[in-house]
Design brief:
The chain is an alpha/beta fold. It has four helices and seven strands. It has a five-stranded parallel sheet with strand order 2-1-5-6-7, sandwiched between helices. Strands 3-4 form a two-stranded antiparallel ribbon. 42% of the residues are buried.
Length: 142
């Protein structure tokens, strides 16, 4: 399965881990997906190393039924992601609409806030070293 014609949303919040965030963004774009970046704040977010990212979509403006997968990247191992209420609501709505939700590392805490302990249509990677296989799983539509 290709990601062409699919809509992927990648969340950004303060302290995001660069590879956890950029790998899905760049791979998705490379494969022809429409990739949206939804930040916790309208001004964007800075990574753990201070690199800024500017969102190109607002969570409230996206139709959850049109999103194929939403990805929550991890942050520093000593921290937990701080998503906005709108980001958590988007994850909840995408999952409820039949879309997949995915996380990298401690980004799993965002999924737990949004959908609790549900496991259907949930994908995860333990960390940066697992990103290639993680993305292959997303590509397969599992």
């Amino acid at each position: 399965m290709s990601l062409a014609q699919q809509k992927v949303v990648v969340l950004a919040y303060p302290g995001y881990q660069e590879l956890d965030f950029w790998y899905p963004v760049l791979r998705g774009r490379e494969e022809g997906a429409t990739v949206h970046i939804v930040a916790a704040a309208a001004a964007g977010a800075e990574s753990i190393l201070g690199y800024p990212v500017i969102p190109d979509a607002d969570a409230a403006d996206l139709d959850p039924a049109s999103v194929d997968v939403v990805i929550a990247p991890g942050v520093a191992p000593w921290d937990l992601p701080q998503p906005s209420g709108a980001q958590v609501a988007l994850v909840t709505a995408v999952h409820a609409a039949g879309g997949r939700v995915a996380s990298v590392g401690n980004g799993a805490s965002v999924l737990a806030q949004a959908i609790g302990d549900q496991t259907e249509r949930v994908l995860s990677a333990d960390g940066t070293n697992d990103l290639a296989e993680f993305f292959a799983t997303i590509r397969r539509g599992v």
